[in-house]
Amino acid sequence: MTPSPQIEHHDLGEQLRQFACDLALRAGALIVEGRRSGVGSVDTKSTATDLVTMFDRASENLIVGSLREHRPNDGIVGEEGTSLVGVSGIDWFIDPIDGTTNFFYGLPGYAVSIGARDPHGSLAGAVFVPTTNELFSAARGHGAWLNGQRIGCSTTTSLSQALVATGFSYQPELRRKHMARLQHIIGEVRDIRRFGAAAPDLCYVAAGRVDAYFEEHLGAWDLAAGELIAREAGCISGDLSGGPVRPAQVLVANPALFEPLRALINKADATCAAEN
Ligand code: IPD
Ligand code: CA
Ligand code: CA
Fold it and tell me: Which of 128, 150, 172 is where one domain is finished?
């Protein structure tokens, strides 16, 4: 019997999840091994604080090389410059080191993030945090996984009990704005966390380690894998004005906290605007 297109597509998602996992593990091993003898050559990108090391580039080269070999018809976007148009309908989004500042300082919170999208949205993804040996992954409709175990988001229902992760842009003006906003949020929640890598932040919401995460001005590569992993773990995602999630505005939370936190962030922004 010929399989239905729906079943074929499910199989493709699962196949791409496994491929993304394999690539993330290999790239993770490469950057950890490289880091043992120092960070090597380092440049800056968008601002003086936005770093890129030789290992960001080496990781992207490894992932892109393998994708080109095994999936030559797919499109690829990589943070460190890869931009290839595909013809298969599958596009890959790669963050070869998410949390480069952590990597530079020898802090443990950095990751490799690899996500695949099809015309219906995110299809599969993997986020590997090598220093804790944690591999998060998901395929659309197949749930979210951490090292082979299913994961789910938290069940916290009260904002006052919510542990909320966030991050800041590399642009000084935006950082000031986002820090000012936090003054009106931190008193209303349990606490704020800034771990320094967006893809693990999203996975930590998926695993119930934090209750929510929000950030603005991300790249598609920050979001492609982690946001799918969070939704497959039962989270809700969106932007700050009630629309679909987009790299420019990301809010991910357990279902009970999504709307209350969205309202709190908007109220904080309104208060900041009134103060200026
Ligand atoms: C950054 C990290 C950080 C977030 C920034 C990202 P990078 O990614 O995810 O947590 O706050 O917005 O740009 O530059 O380390 O790949
Ligand atoms: Ca990143
Ligand atoms: Ca990066």
Answer: 150
Alpha carbons 152 and 205: distance in angstroms, whole number? 9
Structural element, H or E, at residue 253: strand 249-253
Does 2 score more than 70 pLDDT?
no
Tell me, yes or no, whether 92 and 187 share the same domain: no
Q: How many domains does the chain have?
A: 2
Tell me the pLDDT band of 9, cut-offs 50, 70 and 90.
low
Between CA 27 and CA 46 the distance in angstroms is: 24
Residue 132 and residue 26: Cα distance in Å, rounded? 15
Pairing label, strands 91-98, 75-78: parallel
pTM: 0.95
Please identify, by atom number, the ligand 1 atom nearest to the C-alpha of residue 97: 16
Distance CA 18, CA 276 (A): 50
Render pLDDT for 146-157 as a digit per residue (tens, 0 to 9): 999 999 999 999
- Best substitution site from 218, 223, 249, 250 to test ligand 1's pocket, by max atoms within 8 Å of Cβ? 218
User: What is the number of the ligand 1 atom nearest to the C-alpha of 195?
Assistant: 10
Domain assignment of residue 141, given as a range: 9-150
